[in-house]
Amino acid sequence: MTTAAERAELVDLIELDEAECLRLLAKCEIGRVVFTDAALPAAQPVTYLLDDEEIVFRTAGGSKLAAATRGAVVAFQVDQIDPGTRTGWTVLGVGEAYEVTVPERLAELAERMPAPWAPNRTAHTIAIPLQRLTGRRLVAVPATAWDD
């Protein structure tokens, strides 16, 4: 028979399809942009919007994030993990970021974007087309599945 500590570790990792990854991305508004800063990996949290199959976020003028993401291949990650049960999910998208400059699209996005947590962080609107999208779900496995 398994102990409570062992039961906490009984999880299975399930690959998510693209539709489920997009559904999970659409229900959140905080994620992390992973980019290169001075040839080293860096990550910054952002408020974002899923617009079709693109992640869209705003950032300050002159910020490292704005400079590092325009035209660069970056990653975007969102997850929700319950440390107590060790269950949850994670989604990772990868794409070549670009700055949105078309006035009509900027106006339409501005109506739907979540409010930024930090003030004065709206000078640049950056989009990441999700050219590669993967996800995993950690699900609890009944303890009976592990008992002999």
Task: Tell me what you see in this structure.
The chain is elongated and about 55 Å long. The chain has a nine-stranded antiparallel beta sheet with strand order 1-9-6-5-2-3-4-8-7. A hairpin with a 4-residue loop joins strand 5 and strand 6. The protein has a single domain, classed as Roll (Pnp Oxidase, Chain A). The N and C termini lie close together (8 Å). The chain has four helices and nine strands, in the order H-E-H-E-E-E-H-E-E-E-H-E-E. It has 148 residues and is of the alpha+beta class. The longest helix has 10 residues, at 103-112. The chain has helices spanning 4-8, 18-26, 64-69, 103-112, and strands spanning 11-15, 30-37, 40-51, 54-59, 73-82, 87-96, 98-99, 124-129, 132-140.
Span between N and C termini? 8 Å
Q: Could you list the spans in which at least 5 consecutive residues all have pLDDT below 50? A: none
CATH class equals Mainly Beta
For the largest sheet, list the strands in their spatial order. Answer: 1-9-6-5-2-3-4-8-7
The CATH superfamily appears as: Electron Transport, Fmn-binding Protein, Chain A
Structural class call reads alpha+beta
Query: What is the CATH topology classification name?
Result: Pnp Oxidase, Chain A
For this entry, give a set of tags:
9 strands; Pnp Oxidase, Chain A; alpha+beta; 148 residues; 4 helices; nine-stranded antiparallel sheet
